[in-house]
Amino acid sequence: MVQIPNPPSPDSPAPRSVPTSADVARLAGVSRATVSYVLNNTGAVRISEPTRRRVHEAARELGYVPHAAARSLRAGHSRMVLMPTPSFPAGPLYTRFLGELQWALGRLDYTVVQYGTAAPHEEDAARAWAELRPVAVLAPASDLGPRGVDVLKRSGARAVLTLGPEPVDGAHALLTDQEGVGRGATRHLYDRGRRSIGVVVPAESGLDVFSAPRLAGARHAVEGTDATVTVLPLAYEEQDAARLAARWGSLGLDAVFAYNDEYAMLLMRALQDEGLDIPGDAAVIGADDLMLGRLLRPRLSTVHLELPAGRDLAALVDRAVHDPGAPPERHKVLGATVVHRESS
Amino acid sequence: MVQIPNPPSPDSPAPRSVPTSADVARLAGVSRATVSYVLNNTGAVRISEPTRRRVHEAARELGYVPHAAARSLRAGHSRMVLMPTPSFPAGPLYTRFLGELQWALGRLDYTVVQYGTAAPHEEDAARAWAELRPVAVLAPASDLGPRGVDVLKRSGARAVLTLGPEPVDGAHALLTDQEGVGRGATRHLYDRGRRSIGVVVPAESGLDVFSAPRLAGARHAVEGTDATVTVLPLAYEEQDAARLAARWGSLGLDAVFAYNDEYAMLLMRALQDEGLDIPGDAAVIGADDLMLGRLLRPRLSTVHLELPAGRDLAALVDRAVHDPGAPPERHKVLGATVVHRESS
DNA sequence: TTGAAAGCGGTACCAA
DNA sequence: TTGGTACCGCTTTCAA
């Protein structure tokens, strides 16, 4: 069956069908094989210079672009690294990290794809990702159970890496020690003499992945001491912060770990508006070490987070891809350091 | 050539090759066609209940996941909407917008994919995207010239939408009126009696896409008046802000449009540290209407940006896909409103 | 140096 | 109700 080249439409700009390598071959007067050889610069086969030129010329003229799906179907594998689009509002920290990682993976000739449609159920998500047959998957541990890892591996993913506080069976783990953040912050407050410590837990959904372990770390830090930890739910709104500040006196707290710098700014402002002295009446510490903390007065104490360099992580992915049989590795990827400023 | 099913490795867990629909068919004792019918719930074909059960059972047992590339190769089209990963550090505004859009497109059964490897040259980028044969592409106008649009369309993209201040030939345009932001902010300062207006231009690369039109808008706002606009390059560092603040007196300015709220916070802090009164000595206005502006003292004036609802934009994409022949539409997608607070 | 042809994994037409 | 089969676009072996 011959494909109809151009539906006879005298006046409308003929909606050319997408050119294939066969079209290029036809126009150049060679076979499809030759086209493939030329365009992929196959080393093992020598093509004469005039032929090469003709093929390139034809490809350019037709605006030929190879079909990635067909290629990887034939090849039996792709170079796609899949990451789900984060479900939480990514801060500057994570954004920069992601950018670096993508760049580094690009250098290793991987194509990074962020898959952006959240599935309701965890295993469905894994199946949806698996349909794309990525060579590697890097996902939050919270989005991927052991079943999900299995689905991906059975569909040919040579490396599955999870990012989160706990490892997932069968996958390489990048352990983000969020507990350490809460522990460090709280221990710092304790060391500064505080004993009644509030811990902000954002009301916004999606953040519990971070806030839960941070809270757990805080609790852990005061275990066996005379200090107490009080949970302070807080929505990221001025009103809610004002409400919390208004009943501050009745809470009997002398310090607060405010989840991160942004929530810290919100709460600190509300406390100051209530006439409280920071750190006199209440010590405040945030986390993430954002610029804004340095700009506040008093300057905001915080927990600085050291994310792994994109290059290193890209190299890890590459190694994992090359050796799919290797036992899952575990890497700590969150260096947490308390930065003491003026607010605590 | 028969594929070797299981490399003889007596002790290691046999690395099964990826199951295909043929494997499912074999196990269920039916043909590949039947498998396809059952798993896709093809309406036109009735399959007996026992057979359906056997097929589903076999698929489950093998952990079968269909191969998206093979499917879309056969179908001749995909439901993939491709967006390049933004090259600038996406703020909370853009992040939320993106999330909404992805969700809305997901509801329309599109798969959103963020392509995350920047190509050096613009047309190369378009070609790289075109290899994936997305049904629609949504990209910053700065990443996509008319040639790029053409490449995409010739490779079967049914809709190409650009996001930026200027339309791109052949593509639907979502016009982000960044000029309007600068114009609004500057006109506001002018209306408040200011005549020597500084405009911050971030030193960080990648932001010029926004800063250039914002500056142009500022210039436009004072055209034909007795006011002047002075460009103030500023890196997002305390030091650089301090430097700028130190020579503030010599600049003879009485107001500044600080690019956005974050740069405004940085600069305002530096000016205050220099002992200047805001807005007495210098009026300050930011943009983006972030939470932090409301928390500053004095409260930061800003320009509120109204991004289009994800639902509406998703609907627009869907319409464009359904009618690829339609002439390019243009939509203004940035409602800019000055929010007057205390800093100006 | 070039061409013919098989086959990657699905889908859908046609026949049984 | 089910099976056989052609075909989507590309790569690669084998022959010429």
Automatic annotation (TrEMBL), chains A, B:
Under the heading CDD domains, the entry gives: HTH_LacI, PBP1_LacI_sugar_binding-like
| Any one GO molecular-function label of the UniProt entry | DNA binding
Task: Cite the residue spans of the region called Disordered.
Answer: 1-21
Q: Any keyword Transcription?
A: yes
Output compositional bias ranges, type Pro residues. 1-13
Please report the stretch or stretches of sequence annotated as the HTH lacI-type domain.
Answer: 19-75
Origin, by domain of life?
Answer: Bacteria
Query: Which PROSITE patterns does the UniProt record give?
Result: HTH_LACI_2
- What keywords sit in the KW lines? DNA-binding, Transcription, Transcription regulation
Protein's name according to its UniProt entry: LacI family DNA-binding transcriptional regulator
